[in-house]
Amino acid sequence: MMASFALLVPMIIGAVTVIVAERSARRNWGYYFWAAAGANALCTFVAFLVNIEGLICVILAVPLFVVLGGIAGLITGLVCRLTQRSRPAVYGFALLPLLLGGFEQRLPLPQTVRREERVLVVAAPSDVVWQELLSARDIQPQEMNQAWMYRIGVPLPRSAITETQVGTLIRHITMGKSIHFDQVATDWVPDQHVLWTYRFTKDSFPPQALDDHVRIGGAYFDVLDTKYTLHDVPGGSELHVSMRYRVSTNFNWYVNPIAALLVGNFEETALRFYGRRAEVAQSHHVPQ
Asked: What's the confidence (pLDDT) of residue 96?
């Protein structure tokens, strides 16, 4: 997750691809870009096949690697047309990730905290929605698999059950691949709002359950808290969710928009899940 690797290695792969191709014949500009971009896509795919990287990281990295590799291919193609010293220049450039990586690993990671919020009107009263927030049993794949984060490899949730321990609400989360952790309520008023913080243990994420680069509570990503708020509105209630999360990489300019997209999409999926369940529960209580 070092910028010296994520930004420079794709460019080196692109440059080497063009230099090797130019040794046999002069190539056109389209070739410079697409051959270099394709070489990067192939490298990330091979990294997934040999378990160097997980599927989530590969999917998130491919767009960046392809674009950087293609740009490097164009630059290398230009150098090849203007000079005969392209190969020595690339060989020297190949040392930069090692040199800069040794320096970069001594730098503290940024601690960027962001917030995403979404809202949904549910055709059920606040007390019914509240009960669904506290107890979500037997979550079926089709109820949550529309979220992009689950489509790219994050294990699906299975249950979220709340119990009271020493006067505190504790919600136990279980997911696929034996992932489990707790949400601890630090502030709540029944039928109105609840603020969940996150509590992980050493075995919350078993080996291979999630890529280390995207593991919640890890060095590069964490969810700090999630707040659900309920307001009565005509015909039902308004359910609002606000999630604070941390992104810590040296190329947050690329990661932040992706994280915002995935977190916001997850919030929308979660709201629809609670809304559907609350509306079904409400329909079962309507007198005939």
From this structure: 66
